[in-house]
Amino acid sequence: MQNVSNLLAEKLDSSVTVGTPEFYHTSECLQRLRRQACLAAVANARHKAREVCQVVGQALGRPLLIKEEETKEWRGQNEDAPDPETHTLQQRIDNATFFVTSVVFVSFEIKAKEKGKKKT
Fold first, then answer.
1. Of 78, 79, 43, which is closest to residue 63 (Cα–Cα)?
2. Which pLDDT score, from 0 to 100, does residue 85 have?
3. What do you get for the CA distance between the two ends of the chain, in Å?
4. Which entry of 70, 89, 104, 108 is 20 to 30 Å from 117 by CA?
5. Rounded-to-integer distance, Cα 38 and Cα 25, Å
6. Which long-range contacts (CB under 8 A, 24 or more apart) does 54-61 make?
């Protein structure tokens, strides 16, 4: 981190003070991340259900029920280090990184697979 500050101070005018970067996420960004996690979980459920239907010779129908059962979120891994000022730039980025998981319950209609109809 100090090397980056020194390089910038070297390249910029001496009247410029280079501080340590602050990494953060806006509430809108976090909401968007939560929505993306939920949508990805529903898409994964649909994909798995479609594969199961193929194995048993059925067709996947419309969703009957979609319920988000659990959402977990956490920040980076190095927050417990003794002195955050001594963190490298990568450690600061890791600490500011958010992770989100979403567990969903999805129930789909299962339909009989349609036989290919021949045109006459």
1. 43
2. 65
3. 75
4. 108
5. 19
6. 57/113, 58/110, 58/111, 58/112, 58/113, 59/110, 59/111, 59/112, 59/113, 59/114, 60/108, 60/109, 60/110, 60/111, 61/108, 61/109, 61/110, 61/111
Between 18-32, 33-47, 69-83, the lowest mean confidence (pLDDT) is in 69-83
The contacts found for 13-21 with CB under 8 angstroms, 24 or more apart, are 20/85, 20/92, 21/89, 21/92
Token match 């129908």: residue? 61
Burial class (CB in 10 A: 0-12, 13-18, 19+), 100: middle
Q: What is the pLDDT of residues 58-97, one digit of tens each?
A: 999 999 999 999 999 988 765 555 566 667 777 877 888 8
CA angle, 102 then 103 then 108, to 5°: 125
